Amino acid sequence: MDVRSEVKSVTSHADGQLEVAEDLIITDAGTEVGRSTRRRVLAPGADLTAEPSQVQAVAGVLWTTEVVAAWQAAQAVRFTPPAR
Fold it and tell me: Among 12, 15, 42, 81, which residue is least crowded by beta carbons within 10 Å?
């Protein structure tokens, strides 16, 4: 049995996040015996070293310094508790 993954799509969201849809394909003697799809969302500036080259390429184009900085600023505001 062989197992491989295949990127189906990389979708950009307005806030810079990337949604990755990936198929996990299981074959036995060259015949596909199973397939499942998983989705995940990556935040601007995330570590991409373990991501497929297609995902790295899209992020390299879309995740400019400005996009990453805007994402980080939005998260700092979003998760800062109010002063008492």
Answer: 81
Q: How far apart are the C-alpha atoms of 69 and 84, rounded to whole Å? A: 28
First-to-last alpha carbon distance for the chain, in angstroms, is 59
Q: How far apart are CA 29 and CA 78, in angstroms?
A: 51
Q: Torsion-angle region of residue 16: left (phi > 0), alpha (psi -120 to 50) or beta?
A: left
Q: What is the greatest pairwise CA distance in the chain?
A: 65
Q: Which long-range contacts (CB under 8 A, 24 or more apart) does 72-77 make?
A: 72/44, 72/45, 74/15, 75/43
Of 71, 15, 84, the C-alpha closest to 45 is 71
Write out the chain's pLDDT in tens, 84 residues.
999 999 999 999 999 999 999 999 999 999 999 999 999 999 999 999 999 999 999 999 999 999 999 999 998 877 666 777
